[in-house]
Amino acid sequence: AFDVLIVGGGPAGASAAIYAARKGIRTGIAAERFGGQVLDTMAIENFISVQETEGPKLATALEEHIRQYEVDITNLQRATQLVPNTKGGLHQVHFASGAVLKSKTIILATGARYRELNVPGETEYRTRGVAYCPHCDGPLFKGKRVAVVGGGNSGVEAAIDLAGVVAHVTLLTHNTLRADAVLQRKLHSLPNVDVILNAQISEVKGDGKKVNGLSYKDRSSNEFHTIDLEGVFVQIGLLPNTEWLKGTVELSPRGEIIIDDRGQTSLPGIFAAGDVTTVPYKQIVIAVGEGAKASLSAFDHLIRSSAP
Ligand code: FAD
Predict the structure, then answer these.
(1) For residues 109 and 19, is the Cβ–Cβ distance under 8 A?
(2) How far is the CA of 274 from the centre of ligand 1 (A)?
(3) DSSP secondary-structure letter at 198?
């Protein structure tokens, strides 16, 4: 059995694994896809001290760093069930393959995924004009025209944020705006933002290399329109990968794992870190810090609870 078992091999999990291994305790990490969301991104320019890198490069660097230590790595394994031992014994994680791993403490770092539009062109032009994270990719569209799809808080926040960076923003929403009134007021005060309500996105258009337009159906008139632009930010939800945890650790109404300021979940000995948790702002640099924090908390738990 492990002292610490980390589930998830993104930035949060990798950081947790390195911090645990450096304490000299038995550390395991199991992931469905090592690297996590980082694998789906190209330019990364906000991982502090690394001016510019690419997702797959950073994913390889994370793995190489872990391999410097004695960490048991299990890749391509999807966790399907957590069986916590509330009496202080070993917790278990069951995998789709039938394998079961046991550990004194667990760190959940299964991340999140952006909800997609599921329209033609979205996948084709991903990282070539289709983006999901304004903090990450906003500066790449400096002086260009973009659309933000989504009328909730994240969509309106993204539009306000991008309006300060890009030339023009068109915000499209399926019904009406659902964001907080204060955000809506701010949005409407900006000179370079248009809002289109009742829009059903039908296609992301491109020239084969890059995005050059967005088509939508006006749901009140059933007419189709196309906007010329260079970028599309999809802001229709970030889904935490917690389906497999239902009925165990406490989740927020959004399905995120609720943690305290030490990364502790509602169950003793079970910690969580990164995009899968309630911690605000889903970023690599934050996930890395949260992973370190959860790992130190797990170590603290071990030295307080186990015999020497
Ligand atoms: P993830 O990276 O989501 O990793 C989760 C890990 O858990 C993966 O290994 C996954 O396979 C595994 N997993 C999930 N479910 C299971 C399961 N049931 N069993 C086993 N393993 C499981 N952030 C930035 O700071 N800068 C950027 O430029 C940037 N650009 C981005 C571009 C795109 C297109 C996307 C999608 C995200 C971007 N982000 C960026 C956000 C950043 O990637 C995330 O904040 C970060 O990866 C979160 O790390 P994490 O370890 O918490 O989760």
Answers:
(1) no
(2) 8
(3) S
Q: At residue 144, what are phi and psi to the nearest 5 degrees?
A: -105, 175
Would strands 112-114 and 238-240 be described as parallel, antiparallel, or unpaired? antiparallel
d(CA 243, CA 251): 10
Nearest in space to 232 (alpha carbons), one of 251, 211, 207, 248: 211
Strand partners, 8: none
* Residue to substitute in 92, 284, 290, 293 for testing ligand 1 pocket (most ligand atoms within 8 angstroms of CB): 284
Residues with CB under 6 A from ligand 1: 7-13, 30-34, 36-38, 40-41, 44, 46, 78-79, 109-112, 114, 132-133, 136, 241, 244, 274-276, 282-285, 287
β-sheet bridge partners, residue 113: 239
Which ligand 1 atom sits closest to the C-alpha of 80? 18
In this prediction, residues 203-224 reach a mean pLDDT of 98
Q: Kindly report the backbone phi and psi dihedral angles of residue 277, in degrees, each rounded to the nearest multiple of 5, phi listed first.
A: -105, 180
Write out the H or E segment, with its range, that includes residue 293. helix 284-305
Query: What is the per-residue pLDDT for 87?
Result: 79
The model's confidence at residue 306, banded by pLDDT at 50, 70 and 90, is: low
